[in-house]
């Protein structure tokens, strides 16, 4: 009986010390940031609200539809996390409407965050090119911040 109490006390104390912290949760914005797109009017250069925007991204295995959003002034889009030096992003304002292709070129830099988050990828030297054969609905583009460190700053302006 004496050994049984000792065994239970040992198991209880081991259980208390084995509980880990909240290191396995990555919800404080430490993960790989997404690219922020904002919208401007081509004539005036002022911020514009887009009635509806459909976004698709080619992550290397074909286009993935990210869905539509309505009445927005900006949109964040995740980029590729493999070793590709670019990501193709497609924009349209109607379900069956014309589609504009923007190729986002970059270099990546990886950094270890934590056991729960793993590796964070930062994008540097952003350079975006609008496909000249698809100039509707996006008429042109303007560069913003040329690196992605977080999702607070606009990286690319789309002119409609």
User: Biggest sheet, strands in spatial order?
Assistant: 3-2-5-6-7
Give the overall pLDDT as a whole number: 86
Characterize the overall form.
elongated
What's the total count of β strands? 9
Helix content: 10-25%
Are there runs of 5+ residues with pLDDT below 50, and where?
A: none
List the SSEs and their pairings.
Layout: H1 2-18, E1 35-40, E2 50-58, E3 63-72, E4 74-77, E5 86-92, E6 100-114, E7 118-130, E8 140-143, E9 156-159
Parallel strand pairs: 1-9
Antiparallel strand pairs: 1-4, 2-3, 2-5, 5-6, 6-7, 8-9
Describe the model.
By secondary structure, the protein is mostly beta strands. It is built from one helix and nine strands. It has a five-stranded antiparallel beta sheet with strand order 3-2-5-6-7, with no helix packed on it. Strands 4-1-9-8 form a four-stranded mixed beta sheet, with no helix packed on it. Strand 5 (86-92) and strand 6 (100-114) form a beta hairpin. The longest helix is centred in the N-terminal third of the chain and has 17 residues, at 2-18. It is elongated. It starts with a helix and ends with a strand. The mean pLDDT is 86.
Features:
160 residues; mainly beta; four-stranded mixed β-sheet; 9 strands; 45% strand
């Amino acid at each position: 009986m004496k050994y049984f109490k000792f065994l239970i006390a040992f198991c209880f104390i081991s259980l208390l010390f084995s509980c880990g912290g909240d290191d396995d949760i990555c919800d404080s914005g430490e993960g790989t940031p997404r690219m922020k797109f904002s919208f401007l009017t081509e004539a005036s250069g002022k911020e514009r609200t887009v009635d509806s925007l459909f976004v698709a991204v080619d992550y290397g295995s074909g286009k993935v539809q990210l869905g539509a959003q309505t009445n927005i002034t900006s949109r964040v889009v995740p980029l590729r996390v493999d070793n590709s030096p670019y990501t193709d992003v497609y924009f349209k304002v109607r379900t069956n409407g014309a589609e504009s292709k923007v190729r986002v070129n970059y270099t990546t830099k990886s950094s270890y965050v934590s056991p729960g988050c793993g590796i964070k990828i930062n994008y540097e030297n952003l350079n975006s090119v609008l496909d000249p054969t698809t100039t509707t609905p996006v008429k042109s583009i303007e560069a913003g911040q040329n690196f992605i460190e977080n999702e607070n700053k606009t990286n690319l302006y789309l002119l409609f």
